[in-house]
Amino acid sequence: MILLKIKYRLLLFLKLFIFQIGLGKYLLRNRYRERIIVFHGIDKTGETKYNSRFVSEKYFTQFIDFISKNYNIISLQDFYDKKFKPNTLNIAITFDDGYANNFKYAIPILEKYSIPATFFITTIQDNNTNFLWPDFLDLVSFYSNQNSIIFENQHYSKNHKGEFIYNGISLKNRCKKLSWKEIQPLLNIFKDEWKIIQQQPLNDYWELMNYNQIKEVAKKPLFKIGSHGYTHANLNSITFEEATLEVLKGKKVLESICEKPILDFAFPFGSYNSELINYSEKIGFKRILLVDYNTENEKNNPLLRNRFVINPHINFKMQLVYLLKGKYL
Ligand SMILES: [Zn+2]
């Protein structure tokens, strides 16, 4: 079994080498392959101690440089229209969460290479908030000196990894089951930590694009704005009524900011169900992005596509190997 695994990995490295010496087109001859890639944040150094959502500006540049030279990169809309080139890997690029660092680091690089991308963003700014709760929680947990906190009348204790745990469940996993309104008491519990964090040069790890930046991105012909829900709630964990409001408000607020129809939607946390897909279609989304399909049957739904999430813990070469393979396992 181990030998088989080594053999398989060697084969993937050999394939990558063939691409690096410019002969990749022969490898993909008579084959169509497609991937939609998801990035989250870009920072200066690729810091992963707060979370696993950021790659460095250098890594991103190297990645874009390689894929633009070796593969065919198209817009998400062309991807859905199957405007694929034969004998190559056809790639569409997406970003989730709408970080200001996308505007600062990714957009200039994408423009330099003329690479199209779709940015899936929330409109939590509508609630006078310019960050998403997972980033808030990751940062305050990392910097907090509190050994325990009380949330929802439960005593959460900090473990050696810096996570707050109650009864074997992390605060983060608990929050994935809650609406933004229910999560808000945490802003008060960690207000001192958050004040300190905001005084430090940590903006790249939490700050979202403001409305002017979103508007500016929407105006650029190379880029599209898609919705990522209203407050990044896990739509499978709240009531259907709450979930439909999240989907609808996310769309409407973005449309008023961008002054154009918003037709692309990506489920927060990749979490969805068939009723929510029907609802998203009903209110006018033309392209609905997932991470993984829930069922095999959904692969036949022309609105849906799965995506390949870039993992910052994996080095550049291995990332390309997995990209060719289309999955990490
Ligand atoms: Zn997200």
TrEMBL record:
Keywords: Signal. One of its GO terms (biological process) is carbohydrate metabolic process. PROSITE patterns: NODB. It is found in: Secreted. One of its GO terms (cellular component) is extracellular region. GO terms for molecular function: hydrolase activity, acting on carbon-nitrogen (but not peptide) bonds. SUPFAM superfamilies: Glycoside hydrolase/deacetylase. Residues 89-329 form the NodB homology domain. This is Polysaccharide deacetylase.
